[in-house]
Structures are given as structure tokens and as C-alpha cells.
């Protein structure tokens, strides 16, 4: 079996080069690495970068995907959890 993982931060930094491929094969999408990104910086706390994270979480929810919050420190993880709570995404 073949499935896809979408790392949304790296996708953003890589100018969304593979995003169309992932969306064309959305039925194979089962896992997300969720973190924000800005410019060429990855692993930012959710809500602190340039990515439309609500859109990505909507796709993940529609596909019943697992999501990993990928941050580099505890403070960014706390900020990410707070962003999820503020945006009503903790009980999905």
C-alpha cells in the first residue's frame, strides 16, 4: 500500500511544488505534519506564519487524517495548542 504525508510547512517553503500532486491524490493522504512557515523558516508555532492552516486542517478532517504538531521547542508547542483551542480545532 502507498499513502501520502503532507508536511505543510516544508511544502510552503518549497513554493508548494508538490501541493498539486498531493491534492490530485488526496485519497492517498493519511498524515499531516502541521507547523507554520514564513519565507524559508519552518517549524513555527501555528498561526505565526503565512500558511492558511484552517484550510489544511479542513482537508485533514475531511480525509480523517492524523496530524502531528511539529515544533522545535516547548513554547512553540504551547502557542500551537492555544491556536488550535482558539480556532475550535481541539475537539475534531
List keywords for this structure.
92 residues; alpha/beta; 3-stranded parallel beta sheet; two-stranded antiparallel ribbon; 5 strands
What does this structure look like?
The protein is an alpha/beta fold and 92 residues long. Helices cover 38% and strands 23% of the residues. The protein has 4 helices and 5 strands. The protein has helices at 8-13, 19-24, 53-62, 74-86; strands at 4-7, 29-34, 36-38, 41-44, 66-69. Strands 1-2-5 form a 3-stranded parallel beta sheet. It has a two-stranded antiparallel ribbon with strand order 3-4. β3 and β4 form a beta hairpin.
List the helices and strands and how they pair.
Layout (H helix, E strand, L loop, with lengths): L3 E4 H6 L5 H6 L4 E6 L1 E3 L2 E4 L8 H10 L3 E4 L4 H13 L6
Parallel strand pairs: 1-2, 2-5
Antiparallel strand pairs: 3-4
Catalogue the unreliable spans.
Answer: none
Tell me about the largest β-sheet.
3 strands, parallel
Q: What is the residue-averaged pLDDT?
A: 93
Percent range of helical residues: 25-40%
Distance between the termini: 27 Å
Q: How many E strands?
A: 5
The oligomeric state of the chains shown is single chain
- What proportion of the residues form beta strands (DSSP E)? 15-25%
Strand order of the largest sheet: 1-2-5
The radius of gyration computed from the alpha-carbon positions, rounded to a whole number of angstroms, is 13 Å
N-to-C order of helices and strands: EHHEEEHEH
Shape: globular
Number of helices: 4
Helix/strand/pairing category: alpha/beta
